[in-house]
Amino acid sequence: MQDDSGLKRILTLAWAYRLFQAAVGSRQGKRWVSEHFWRARAGQKVLDIGCGPGVILQHLPDGIHYVGFDISEEYIASARARHAGDPGKQFVVGVAEDFAESPPPAMRDCDLVLVNGLMHHLEDHEAETVLRLARAALAPGGRLVCLEPSFLLRQSPLSRWLLQRDRGRNVRSEQQWKALVRAVFPDVETHILTGLIRIPYTHIVIEAKG
């Protein structure tokens, strides 16, 4: 579930989303995550589930084969415009349920599947569909890397307050994230990140192997 009421509605616009991400320091945070966890290399095939306006491409190397999809036509139109003329970058409007049972060829045999800030907008059964698609899309030895907000047993009051007001209404605890992903992927590691962006927020990186 996503809360787009009040002022949050402006974030459904691609330009506003990019501006907000820049304001909270998301660019620097994503660069750090890219270097330490995504570790994509030229020539690899990358699927980005819930890609938004495709802003993470600035943190991925040239020469990758990238497919991103998102439910927002506004976001996808923005991404297509920004990367027009690059045949190695594809953007599709859709949801995981459209592809989970039989991923199209462009979404198969991926070296890396990314899910960034999507699953805390989804109910458990919807998130499991995302994870099933990720597993079906991965090549043998490929990796899934998720970046999501997370509650902790011990957490600063301000961080917890901000998480409770996120647009995504399904922010989970570290234990709940582990249980959710392990329902689809048996080999899962998690890493808690604090200080990734300029506001006091807690993130979790979830890694799983195909």
Please render the helix and strand layout as text.
Elements: H1 14-23, H2 26-38, E1 45-49, E2 65-70, H3 73-82, E3 89-93, H4 96-99, E4 110-116, H5 124-137, E5 138-151, H6 157-164, E6 172-173, H7 174-182, E7 188-194, E8 202-209
Parallel strand pairs: 1-2, 1-4, 2-3, 4-5, 5-6
Antiparallel strand pairs: 5-8, 7-8
Describe the structure.
This protein is of the alpha/beta class and 210 residues long. The protein has a single domain (6-209), classed as Rossmann fold, CATH 3.40.50.150. The protein has helices at residues 14-23, 26-38, 73-82, 96-99, 124-137, 157-164, 174-182, and strands at 45-49, 65-70, 89-93, 110-116, 138-151, 172-173, 188-194, 202-209. Strands 1, 2, 3, 4, 5, 6, 7 and 8 form an eight-stranded mixed sheet that branches.
Quick overview:
The protein has 210 residues and is α/β, with parallel strands linked by helices.
Distance, first to last CA: 27 Å
CATH topology term? Rossmann fold
How would you sum up the global shape?
A: globular
Provide the helix percentage: 25-40%
Kindly report the name of the CATH homologous superfamily. Vaccinia Virus protein VP39
Q: Work out the count of structural domains.
A: 1
State the helix count.
7
What's the average pLDDT?
90
Uncertain parts: none
Beta-strand percentage? 25-35%
Listing every helix as H and every strand as E from the N terminus to the C terminus, the arrangement reads: HHEEHEHEHEHEHEE
β-strand number = 8
By CATH, the architecture is named 3-Layer(aba) Sandwich
* Biggest β-sheet description: 8 strands, mixed
Secondary-structure-derived class: alpha/beta
- Rg estimate, integer Å: 16 Å
